Amino acid sequence: MKEAAVTTIERENPQTSTMAPKGDDHMNMDQMLKQAQKLQLEISRIQDDLAKEKVEGVSGGGMVRVSATGQGEIISIFIETEVVDPDGKEILEDLVLAAIHDATRKSRELAQSRLGSFGGGMGLPGLG
Fold it and tell me: How many CA atoms within 13 Å lie on the side-chain side of 113?
């Protein structure tokens, strides 16, 4: 008499499956979450520091100066009295605009220098 072939079907047990997280994987995830929280706190601290720092944009050889925070907020504009000429209104407007552009550029550069290492390769706007 021939022996009949027996086919068995094994079902995956979620408790013993190799697909279930292992203890080491769980520890690694906890470490990653802690690292992410630490990184988030550091970025927040740097952003707070940037809000307190100031940059100055200039135009017209220093005749017009604009101050901004490290986050780009314009906080003051200084104009030498020699530049104030009723007939030269357009020139004054151009000088103010140029100083604002200079201040905002310097503000972005400051923020980039402080936060750039956090966004490198992450594709986050303003961070890399």
Answer: 10
